Amino acid sequence: MKKIFVYILLFSSMGLIFAKEALAVCPLCAIAVGSGIGFSRWIGVDDSVTGLWIGGLIVSMIAWTISWFDKKNIRFKGKTILAVFGFYIITVVPLYFYGLLGNVQNSLFNWGFFYFDKLTIGIIAGSSAFYFGASLYYFLKEKNQGKAYFPFQKVVMPVSPLIILSLIFYYLTK
After folding, report:
1. pTM score, two decimals?
2. Which of 47, 111, 116, 160 has the fewest CB atoms within 10 Å distance of its CB?
3. In terms of Cα–Cα distance, which of 82, 86, 80, 76 is closest to 66?
4. Percentage of the chain surpassing pLDDT 90?
């Protein structure tokens, strides 16, 4: 199992070698998020923590798609909304039909007739955290005359909130 995981990781990272330029969120960042999802499920980490990384990956893919539309000069009204809803739908619907999402036994807490699924809370928090980290990177870069403050800041800024929230969620659900 570990050997297969290593081969998949190596194969998926081959795209970095042939990448022409970094898009809205760097490819290294997306690989870090994708690896985080696989690793957390592999070691049996709680679904709320896994949801954080799924949410981060969704936001990363949305940013890449919008950047790709812009690069290819594809312009139409609502492309951002389409990308956002599209990626959340193609992620959430399969999770729901496989029984991983919307399960009462997998809820973090109940409030009357409403229950808050661990994976859903994780996806929402992870999406927000990744977006906040990426936005903070661009804000800081703009304040520094278009330069990063340190090497790999474009990777560290979006992934750091996910790591911090992963630790918080891990200890809250332990």
Report:
1. 0.75
2. 111
3. 80
4. 48
